[in-house]
Amino acid sequence: MSLLSSTIQTAHAAVTSLLSAAEVKPGSTIPTSALVKEDSSTETFTFEGLTGKNVFVGVPGAFTGTCSAQVPGYINAYEKFTAKGVRNVYVVAVNDVFVMKAWKAQLANGGTPIKFIADDEGAFVGALGLLFDASPLLGGPRSKRFVLITEGTQITHVVVEPVPSELTVCAADKILALL
């Protein structure tokens, strides 16, 4: 391993540590000042003023195998979520807005009301304490696989996959059972 490569890996690990606060817990609030994107690379927004019951699905990376297997479960069960009072389902990844839009188009060719959110700087996920160093596989810090259920901005449930590459506790059917 070259000195440059070693330095880059160390820097990625340090950035991940710096960006991640202590892992979020029920009763805390979602970060309302972190800037994210949905439709445009130049238009940002925050979750300040979020109301109602919402589900945030954090995934390590768009177009990856496990993530591409997980998200269709939420797309297919969207009406079941809304029947349980869920206002919005947000799929959040530390990817750019172009990648998230392309992934949404691939997974929901006919469209979906689920919102695909680009946390391109990792500010939202980092403030939740849910970043991990995925440098060896995905090139940098990424989101752990998690699901948050919120009532407004207050977090009522936190579910985090023990192994980010697996789907055991964050599948749509498991989350529906919590509502």
From TrEMBL:
Where in the sequence is the active site? C67
| GO terms under biological process | cell redox homeostasis; cellular response to oxidative stress; hydrogen peroxide catabolic process
Report the InterPro entries cross-referenced here: PRX5-like, Redoxin, Thioredoxin-like_sf, Thioredoxin_domain
Keyword Oxidoreductase among record annotations: yes
Keyword Oxidoreductase present in the record's keywords: the answer is: yes
Instruction: Name a GO CC annotation attached to this entry.
Output: peroxisome
Q: Which spans of this chain does the record mark as coiled coil?
A: none
Q: GO MF terms on file?
A: thioredoxin peroxidase activity
* Keyword annotations of the record: Antioxidant, Oxidoreductase, Peroxidase, Redox-active center
Q: Which residues form the Thioredoxin domain?
A: 24-179
Q: What is the recorded function of this protein according to its Swiss-Prot or TrEMBL entry? A: Thiol-specific peroxidase that catalyzes the reduction of hydrogen peroxide and organic hydroperoxides to water and alcohols, respectively. Plays a role in cell protection against oxidative stress by detoxifying peroxides.
Q: Please give the family membership noted in the entry.
A: Belongs to the peroxiredoxin family. Prx5 subfamily.
Question: What's this protein's name?
Answer: Peroxiredoxin
Per the UniProt record, the source organism is Sparassis crispa
